[in-house]
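Repro case for the chain-ordering regression, as requested:
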Amino acid sequence: MADWFPSEEWLESYRRNLAEDDAYAAASEGWGVGFDGDFRFVLTHLPLEETTLGDLPDALTAELFDRIDALSATEFDRLRETATPAFDERFAAADGDGNDDDERVRFRRALSTVALADVPTVVWPALETHIRGDLESLLAQLEAYVVDGSTVYAHLALEDGDCERAELVADPSARDPGFELEAPYETWSELVEGADVIESVMSNEMALDGDVTRVLHYGDAAAAMGDVAGETDARHLF
Amino acid sequence: MSQSTTQSGFQAERIDTSSKWYDLFQKGVELGTWNVEKLFDEVGFEEDRAIWESLEPGERKQIRYLLSGFLDGEFAVGEDASHHLQRIAGAPCFDDNEEMEMYMTMFTLTEHKHTQFLDVYMHEVMGEQDVFADLNPKRGGARIPIVQATGLGEIFDRQGQLTARAAHSRDPVDIAKALTVYHMIVEGLLARGGFYSINKLSRNAPLPLLNHGFKFISTDEGRHMTHGVEALSELIAKERAGEPEFQGVSQAIVDVLYENVPAVADFGYMFTDAVDDPLEINFNDLLMRVGHLIDGQFNEALDLDMDHRTVVGRVADRHQECLERDIDDAVRTYRDLYQRKRGVEAAADGGR
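-- result from build under test --
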């Protein structure tokens, strides 16, 4: 897994691309030398309440649904019996037209309605064993790194033209980097699609906190950071 | 001609009462005729004088610097409005817009009132030190030392040149340049950045009369900005409609932005750590505020294709020049020069 955005794997790809980018290296020479040049990226308003498992790209969920379809009748019944009450409610509600559909169709339908924000309370251990690969990793990251229901923090260690580390942060209060760039997920998503970071800050779509004068003098480095984000392959989760 | 109805239900024959400039004129009549002397009488100078006396020298210097920029700026826009903008409003490219010409009378009146307020306020509250009334530009002198020292005076000079040229040629592209430097840069970025600074400094230096005056001034300037955006939008619309004499308007506006946006660094330098920032106006906050204004005015209001990176680069270059300049030394040099012109030996503190 490398390119789902946002994810720690995408962040690592971005870090690697940034460290290898000649334009960034040249423009950011001296950045962070004698001052804290680290950045915190803050992605707010992740649409976890609005996005359900069924809304995720098929490439992420197809394997889960295939596994459920492939279960024997006994295995499926066992899975159903251990479901959480929260899932049972959804299962009952999934019989939309009142007809007695195939139970697996209802099961899939019910699973598709689970909002990402509700996954930890709806999903149960027996179902978790069928969630594998990228979906498993991404759901684990959401559980570990989403703060206050819809915000994710990333920390980038930037010094003298290099990006030594880039990681998601579970406890943002544990660090106080020199600079912070905050925006709703949608704005970050546009940046990853190639929007101009300087324009995003000037138009107030992104909030820059820190020594703006320093950023002003490293304007080309800031622009290169945005350009590299746009050049890093990304498949959007939302 | 017009049979339209005003908000009050009045109709007119010669005047188009549905015109946006008629609306600005009427708003100016309602809101722009605040009486400067009456404000002085009602609020009084005493409290401001007492607070002024209680401030630290560095705090006083910062307020003097800021108000000096405003005083010379208001003086410059008042002069150019009187001499050039009225003629520009009557240019053929605005289609004999009688209502715009009506509004310009209100516009000019308010600009001179701003000068009146600042000039009297600085004299009555802050003393004579920085005003140099007998050396004002109208009388063949120069600007206040801090305005000259930061380079801020250059944009007021440029505004004078561009408005004079446009008033003479009445060419749409020349007019676009003149209105851009006047309304979008001097009023739109520098004055609005200044209002933001006045607001911030009032937390540490709550000068009641100054704050009262600036509330009126910023309301007036809001109408001026509306006029500037509407006038430029009209020129851009005609350019986009393919009218030959309007071709080049949009590029001229963007070019004037690039040429003059470094003045933001000149103005903001008064609030950097390099010259101390005792009233905590904060250059970083000011830069962000002005950045948002640039995008709002040029990208959103005028729908122009502005290159944000060019703007940032120009401001950064000028800020670097400011950092390499000894502003206190430059102020002293100008003060000595002015004193010599006036035939007075330079005082130890550079003042009168």
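Ordering looks correct now. The CA atoms of residues 18 and 46 of chain A lie 24 Å apart.
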